[in-house]
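INPUT
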Amino acid sequence: MIAIGSDHAGYEFKERIRKLLDDLGEKYIDFGAFSKESCDYPDIAKKVAESITKNEADKGILICGTGIGMSIAANRFNGIRAAVCVNEEMARVSRTHNDSNVLAIGERITPWIEVEKMVKSWLVSEFEGGRHSKRVKKLDL
Ligand code: RB5
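OUTPUT
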């Protein structure tokens, strides 16, 4: 299960990602925004982060204008490893090396064609473990 959310600045891409997830047969919970009306990214990031920490969702995707606010907000929650990525390679390695469980995207930064590749790659990439495991363990405070 994937938790997804955006603020108003990421709403358009969230809607496109919903369609992409439908096409890929992935199940998701949509935590809003539900329109382009202005809202605050920490409120949505909290809902997505908590759905992961409560094990309702395994992973999350958050979109705002830059991806930065969403990643900062989500990373306040213990156990969340949110990676703000701007291309497919970052999205892939955030899984294989960092075991990211949230992908943060900036709608005003990354073109949709790359975002589509990022989401697909992030979803299928697995954490490699090994030497990366001890580093990821050190992330939790
Ligand atoms: C909203 O204008 C914008 O500040 C927000 O979406 C995000 O980019 C914050 O990090």
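end of record. The chain is about 45% helix and 15% strand.
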